[in-house]
Amino acid sequence: MKTIATSLIISFALIGAAQAGTPRGDVDNVPFQGTYGQAGSSVSRAQVQAELQQAKAEGLVVRGDLDNAPFTAQAESTVSRAQVAAEVAKTPGATAFGDLNNVPFQG
Known about the structure:
Elements: H1 2-20, H2 45-57, H3 81-90
């Protein structure tokens, strides 16, 4: 039992000594240089705010979801159902309302 305890203590001591010799973290130890290595901006806060106000005045800044347009009803059609059916019948290769090749699975 003493041999097992002694071997564990020695192995942990050797592991600790091996870890102490290796560097941890960033090897080059250079501070963060900004996004993609670019230096910080030379534009002041007041300049940015002035540009923002100008863009708002020109209507270039929009808030909200641009894809969320309100519903607009379609204009009433002046074509009757009979006129549409007659137009379909005149079209070569057309079938009466629908694609006959697009039949649902019949089991």
